[in-house]
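Hello,

Our lab assistant flagged a job as stuck in the queue for most of the afternoon. It eventually completed. Since we weren't sure the result was trustworthy after the delay, we are filing this so someone can double-check. Below is the sequence as submitted and the structure that was eventually returned. Let us know if re-running is recommended.
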Amino acid sequence: MPRAVILTNPASGKGRGVRRRDEALPQFRAAGWEVEAHHGLDADASLALAHEVVATRPDVLVMCGGDGMVNLGLQAAAGTDVPIGVLPAGTGNDFARCFGLPLRDGAAAARRIVHGRERTVDLARIGERWYGGVLAAGFDAVVNERANKMTWPRGQARYNLATLAELRVFEPLRYTLVLDGAERELDAMLVAIGNGPSFGGGLRIAHGAELDDGLLDVVLIKPVSRLELVRTFPKLYHGSHVNHPQYERHRVRKVTIASPGIVGYADGERFGPLPLSVECVAGAVRVRA
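-- returned structure --
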């Protein structure tokens, strides 16, 4: 009898995590799986629990929540033969989007795990931490910093307000990049380092990035006016920003990024102040989808 362990973030999506888990559980049981369901009291407890679960070698570790919850699962499962599955229940769900998973149907997502094949994909690594999606290190990261300091409103609206506030004052940033050993200094509105293609709920900043090519996609938006930045933003949903004359892309195995005062965010989580060194680790994790 195959065994699945579901770890849920009860706070995801204003309670969607619990609902998605409850939709999923009957699907596992009907397919003849042994299934356990747990949740941690906070992120640290959930991470410790994920490591404990992986040590018991289940057939799949299922993370139920948003990208932050999935990121905790990656920390535990990376470099092991325990695959992860995803029940999307967050705001962005960008890792789930990489696999075309149903975003609003826990039962359908569970069936993808039960009947799906395993796929081995790359991860990006910063020190001892992993991420599956995109590292934001520019305008987008500044917005995240502002949004995290706000207590109102909640959800996507807080991010939207933070975006508007930063647009009034934002200026191009000075970066030092080391791309596979080659150093560059430049000004840019943002630099994003993609293992996967999207962040922020489907914004395809690293459009064209593939999860199994052994490379990182380093994307630059070089200086533009604030108005032009606003005009370009909607194009991220379709990836058509790649045609903008100030767009630049590099595909590398390792990159070091530095910019004074900027904090890097990946999978929606705060990874810390720049400089940061990021490397692609090919075939780092298995995903059952």
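-- support follow-up --
The delay was a queue issue, not a problem with the job. The result is valid. The helical segments are 16-30, 43-55, 67-77, 94-97, 106-115, 139-149, 156-167, 226-232. The CA atoms of residues 179 and 255 lie 5 Å apart.
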